[in-house]
Amino acid sequence: MKKLGIILLAIALLAGCRKENTDPAKKEMDKFVSEMMSKMTIQEKIGQLNLVTPGGGILTGSVVSTDVEAKIKNGQVGGIFGVYGPEKTLQAQKLAVEESRLGIPMLFGSDVIHGYKTTFPLPIGLSCSWDMELIKETARVAAREATADGIFWNFSPMADIARDPRWGRIAEGAGEDPYLGSMVAQAMVKGYQQDDLSRNNTMMSTVKHMALYGASEAGRDYNTVDMSHLRMFNDYLPPYKAAVDAGAGCVMSSFNDVDGVPASGNRWLLTDLLRTRWGFDGFVVSDYTSVNEMIAHGMGDLQQVSALALKAGLDMDMVGEGFLTTLEKSLNEGKINQEDIDLACRRVLEAKYKLGLFEDPYRYFDASRPEKDILIDEHRSLARETAARSMVLLKNENQLLPLKKSGTIALVGPLADSRNNMLGTWAPTGDHNLAVTVLEGFKNVAGNTANIQYAKGANICDDPEMAKKVNVFGPKIEIDKRSPEAMLKEALAVAGKADVIVAVVGEASEMTGESATRSDISLPMSQKKLVRELAKTGKPLVIVNMSGRPMTIGEEVNHADALLQMWHAGVEAGNALADVLFGDYNPSGKLTATFPQNVGQIPIYYSIRNTGRPQEGSNFEKFKSNYLDVTNSPLFPFGYGLSYTSFQYANISTDKNEMAQDGTIHVSVEVTNTGNFDGEEVVQLYIRDMVASVTPPLRLLKGFKKIFLKKGETTTVEFAITANDLAFYHPDLSFYAEPGDFTVFVGGDSNASLSKVFTLK
Ligand code: BGC
Prior knowledge:
Blueprint: H1 2-22, H2 24-38, H3 42-47, E1 50-52, H4 68-73, E2 79-81, H5 86-99, E3 107-110, H6 123-127, H7 132-148, E4 153-154, H8 178-193, E5 204-210, H9 229-236, H10 238-245, E6 250-253, E7 257-258, E8 261-262, H11 267-277, E9 283-285, H12 293-297, H13 302-312, E10 317-318, H14 322-332, H15 338-354, H16 369-373, H17 377-390, E11 392-396, E12 408-412, H18 438-446, E13 451-455, H19 464-470, H20 484-496, E14 500-506, H21 525-536, E15 541-546, H22 554-559, E16 562-565, H23 573-581, E17 647-654, E18 658-659, E19 664-673, E20 679-689, E21 700-709, E22 714-722, H24 723-726, E23 728-729, E24 735-736, E25 740-747, E26 754-760
Parallel strand pairs: 1-2, 1-10, 2-3, 3-4, 4-5, 5-6, 6-9, 12-13, 12-14, 14-15, 15-16, 18-26
Antiparallel strand pairs: 7-8, 11-16, 17-19, 19-22, 20-21, 20-25, 23-24, 25-26
Helix pairs in contact: 2-15, 7-8, 7-17, 8-10, 11-13, 13-14, 17-23, 18-23, 20-21
This protein binds beta-D-glucopyranose (BGC).
The site of beta-D-glucopyranose (BGC) has 7 residues, from loops.
């Protein structure tokens, strides 16, 4: 058996080599890079592994690069980030190309997380559109704008699965589910790279943060991660792998540890898994000073951790300069080999080659492009459309929404006219001055016929200490000069004269994002009080929750007649919200992360296992898996979201009852638009493995289709299931489906109840 394995491995290796040797483009690249490397000194090779930031963008650590100009000229910089605009980037590139000995061009990177200048909704919001073409299109537009401004290497997508909304960075990802997360990661990579890195309007994508960063204990940023390999492979790794499979040119290592070794020095993660198992052939960049941070993790001094990182398979050191300052010494002391440095250097040079930089190092610095490519009308309308599609309607009693464009509307709340908070976290290249506020959006969409009265009503929060922490990148929580009582009084006066109240509440943009963990994810007390008082007026109340994370808003849901989850929706946020509330767009978003009832339920997600003592029904039972003080169910489940119309599901069927391992089974269901509006629905398919050798989740998303139905219309939606959809990772990390019965559920959210059983032979 062992012998057979060795023979198979040898055949595989030979096949791999043959492939390499026969690919003429790869051969040419190898030759070019080898020739270049033959001219390089060891210092110049190490220089290629150094990524600097002169401090133009958002700083996410305490360290900034110094003497950048001198280092570039000395051949000590491989890439740079935080420099924007064709003039500045050209100037910097010239230092490398014209003033360093070998003239090797630099990579220019940035965090283009949800749009460049045309800011789209937060990634968590984008994912709620469940529209992969749309997401891909936003990434294409982001690449067009960024490359017009001299940036061609993007630190996105963030593929971290997150099941803990206390973690502020849940805003930057696609939520809790590996299947959906994989599709989104893939769409973003394809959007940025367009399968052609050599074009001057596409950018190299970096999948981050490898790996498991979203599982930081207690949601506290940068915290320890420790999980079984089964959970890793089945639940957390698929989106990174999907991004790698989609061709992402770069991978960023994460801050946290994985199996007790920090990701940036984890050879199992960065080499055995990423390269050997997944076949990744791009380069790995560290996160911001994450190599140095291994000192604090307890892995040794700077020289030790830098050597550890290089040997683990990390190629480029972001900002920390551990590589720059210690690798030569480690080489001289025999702690690393020449080959370790050569391999990393080769990978960085290959990335530059693939981007076409050796052909023309200035190809991305065309001063005429920004005007033609950035913030053009077409991009702004895409931002408006995307924002509308990212919003999720969570409640709509008595069809209060859509609002009429008439009568008097009280628009109240600290986020109703707050330009600084519209873009959302991680929009360093956006400009909040360009953002449309909710008040402006209301006036644009309904101002001619409706009387819109605004009052702030409350501060985002009244605590100056909290405001100070949140306002690190500029004022986001602005505490009014007026007393809370005076603001409330004004709001109640406005509300008193109105036919309907729209309260726009939630989080300031920097209450989520990096280093923005909250242990209490409810509305700040100032806003809770406002909502309570507004509810007491007895007027119809619409609550709009603007946030970067699922929040515990049960009280507000009870107060509201209608509630819309808006997220931070980007540069066109105000217009898009008005489009939705006034019915110009019928909402179709569905949650991609569960909303808990309270923080005690966290981590909370739909794909739970049954346990040996599952609760039957929803009442507390002694000696069952439940809580004394809250039910097990979430406030809103994964996949949930309403429309102004309603959809009915019927007649689920499969084309056969049994399926072979290499077969396909087709599931179909009839969906009818039974309401009074045309609308879109995300038809979701979940599968439960009834008996397996590893405790199976109660259901897993395995397919979805977004459809449009005119009112009264019925359609049949079909899904094809193969054994791959039924497969999972086993304790030995083999991936296959086990024969037996499976239940398939189809419906409009993760509680879908229409079901059918089939058997895998
Ligand atoms: C973040 C990364 C980001 C990097 C560069 C870090 O703090 O974790 O997501 O790409 O900074 O800005």
